[in-house]
Amino acid sequence: MDTVRSQEIYSNPWITVREDIVRRADGSEAVYAVVDKSHYAVVVPQDGERFQLVEQYRYPLRRRCWEFPGGSVPGGADMDPLEVARQELREETGLRAGRLTYLGRLAPAPATTSHLGHIVLATDLTEGEPERELSEQDMEAAWFTRAELETMISDGTIIDADTIAAYTLLVLHERDRSQ
């Protein structure tokens, strides 16, 4: 598809919303609303059979959500996913990883956004004090066993798609290593 014209509708340091008019192969035109967001990293902190999750209030859902730590860097399209993962892990949980393993990437909503996520496994962990941003001050962190994590996914306690996808990538990584 060729872009005929593009108009920015809204922008802040984290997102830009634009409307694109595109020409399809048959010559007809279509409208796309596109959200451009900085790429992000999701960290899977694993200590044996335990995983650390964070819980925070998610305004659009009007509820608190358990999820793996993660975040983005404004303007971070060229970010190093391992460095962002290391930073987010330290900020949100206080954990420091002796080893980071790249598990894969996600396009959480490819029909509407250019947002890409990078999933990183953090192991050889040491504890420290979180370095949370002001917006993360109500965040809680806790360890969960693998069985508890899986129950939280299956019973709908965890609804964060990135967390569920990250756990799936971890399971596939573990399976590949065992073969």
Could you describe the 3D structure shown?
It is a single chain. With 179 residues, this protein is of the alpha+beta class. It is 22% helix and 45% strand. It contains three helices and ten strands; from the N terminus they run βββββββαβββαα. Strands 4, 5, 6, 7, 8, 9 and 10 form a seven-stranded mixed beta sheet that branches. It has a three-stranded antiparallel beta sheet with strand order 1-2-3, with no helix packed on it. The radius of gyration is 18 Å and the shape is globular. The mean pLDDT is 93.
Could you tell me the number of beta strands?
10
How are helices and strands ordered from N to C?
A: EEEEEEEHEEEHH
- Average pLDDT number: 93
Distance between the termini: 42 Å
- Give the uncertain stretches in residue-range form: none
How many alpha or pi helices? 3
Structural class category:
alpha+beta
- From the alpha-carbon coordinates, what is the Rg to the nearest angstrom? 18 Å
The fraction of residues in strands falls at: 35-45%
Percent helix: 10-25%
| General form | globular
**Largest sheet geometry:** 7 strands, mixed
Task: Give a brief description.
By secondary structure, this protein is of the alpha+beta class. Helices cover 22% and strands 45% of the residues. A hairpin with a 5-residue loop joins strand 2 and strand 3.
Protein traits:
179 residues, 3-stranded antiparallel beta sheet, alpha+beta
Give the SSE map:
Blueprint lengths: L1 E10 L3 E9 L5 E9 L2 E8 L2 E9 L4 E5 L2 E3 L8 H13 L2 E11 L10 E10 L13 E6 H9 L6 H18 L1
Parallel strand pairs: 4-9
Antiparallel strand pairs: 1-2, 2-3, 4-5, 4-7, 5-6, 5-10, 8-9
